[in-house]
Design a protein that fits this description.
Elements lengths: L2 E16 L4 E13 L5 E6 L10 H15 L7 H9 L6 H19 L3 H4 L6 E3 L2 E3 L4 H13 L4 E5 L5 H15 L4 E5 L6 H13 L4 E5 L7 H10 L3 E4 L6 H10 L4 E4 L1 H4 L2 H13 L3 E4 L6 H12 L4 E4 L12 E3 L2 E3 L2 E3 L8 E4 L4 E3 L1
Helix pairs in contact: 1-3, 2-3, 5-6, 6-7, 7-8, 9-11
């Protein structure tokens, strides 16, 4: 690697994104561009998601600058050696590590002359994403869900976990009535319930025939016993998200059978290298995975989509983040046609440039 540079990207969302953990009005991220000796550029990004990864913009930039000293001069095709250097002495900083990991994978695949999904295994070249309904008043959420379904999305991710459990049940009932039986509903409580509240809410929704596909992270991240209790007490599939960052977390969840599904995010895993490890661990245990994201641009989503497309054990996709932005700061990369996503046949991520009007040099 010849050069590693950073850019700060800031793009307002179309409307505020609300969950049980936070409200986001503007997408902020640090973009990483690694240039090799022949002028090829690899791209990555790291959004500061303080409520989940504990990172802020300044810390991400500082970590990447420190790590850059280890990576400069390394050969991208010696990928494992470069990634091992990146992990050395790194505690936390999962999104910052992910940004560098993405860019290194992008460059390695470019040097190999392959799209990244083929470089990683080449299982498929398309994905179909869900679309998120932010937590709000029940009537507002029902209308939002109906509008999204009418635009062609057949799987909705419903944010709950903010306020009384009875209100969450009302929210989901209203959404099911608004969209009808042909739309899948995934709930995401973002750690907003206790185990008892989760069992009560999910059981009530099952009894009401609301037909949930899954419920994501119903309890606090470190409450593995509570997560396992919920998983064993309800018929609906339970997915771990904030409970699983790296392979060690995945090992604990899988050993306990604390969840039916795992949500892998590059920003939690520290990049593609550990994401592949988690996915294969889950596959060995008969546990399917979803790949999701934070509030990211098409840099991170393109990298996540290439990883997801390369793995047969990834059966669900949550990649709507770029659709929530008021503008697109990325040229090239994954292409959307409604809910369907198509990976570029170009080598690497297929990202060709970043648009200057949305970023500042760091």
């Amino acid at each position: 690697m010849r050069d590693i540079s950073l850019r700060h990207i800031s793009v307002p969302l179309i409307k505020p994104f609300k969950t049980a953990l936070r409200t986001v009005e503007t997408a902020e991220t640090i973009a990483v561009v690694i240039t090799d000796g022949e002028g090829r550029r690899g791209y990555g990004e790291a959004p500061p998601t303080l409520a989940i990864t504990g990172e802020q913009l300044e810390g991400i930039a500082a970590f990447i600058r420190r790590a850059s000293a280890l990576l400069l001069g390394q050969e991208p095709l010696r990928l494992e050696a470069a990634l091992a250097l990146l992990q050395r002495g790194a505690v936390g900083n999962s999104s910052a590590r992910a940004a560098l990991d993405m860019a290194l994978h992008d460059l390695a695949a470019q040097q190999a002359g392959l799209p990244l999904y083929r470089f990683l295994g080449g299982y498929r070249d398309t994905c179909r994403t869900d679309f998120t309904v932010s937590v709000d008043a029940p009537a507002r959420m029902a209308q939002d869900a109906a509008d999204i379904a009418a635009s062609g999305f057949r799987t909705l991710k419903i944010k709950v976990g903010l306020g009384d459990v009875s209100l969450d049940i009302e929210r989901v009932a209203g959404i099911r009535a608004a969209v009808g039986p042909g739309v899948k509903l995934r709930l995401d409580a973002n750690q907003g319930w206790s185990a008892k509240e989760a069992i009560r809410a999910i059981t009530a929704m099952e009894d009401a025939g609301l037909d949930l596909e899954l419920v994501e992270q119903p309890v606090p991240a470190r409450d593995l016993k509570g997560l396992a209790q919920v998983t064993r007490s309800v018929g609906t599939l339970i997915m771990a998200d904030e409970s699983v960052f790296g392979p060690q977390d995945a090992m604990a969840l899988l050993a306990e059978r604390a969840a039916d599904l795992l949500n892998i995010k590059l920003m939690k895993a520290g990049g593609i290298r550990h994401a592949v490890t988690i996915c294969r661990m889950a596959e060995a245990c008969g546990i399917e995975c979803m790949v999701g994201s934070m509030i990211e641009t098409r840099i991170g989503i393109t990298a996540a989509a290439h990883f997801a497309a390369s793995q047969p054990n990834v059966t669900r996709f949550d990649f709507d983040a770029p659709l929530l932005l008021s503008a697109d700061p990325v040229a090239g990369g994954v292409r959307y046609e409604g809910a369907d996503m198509f990976l570029s046949p170009l080598p690497g991520l297929g990202i060709t440039d970043l648009k200057a009007e949305y970023m500042t040099e760091l």
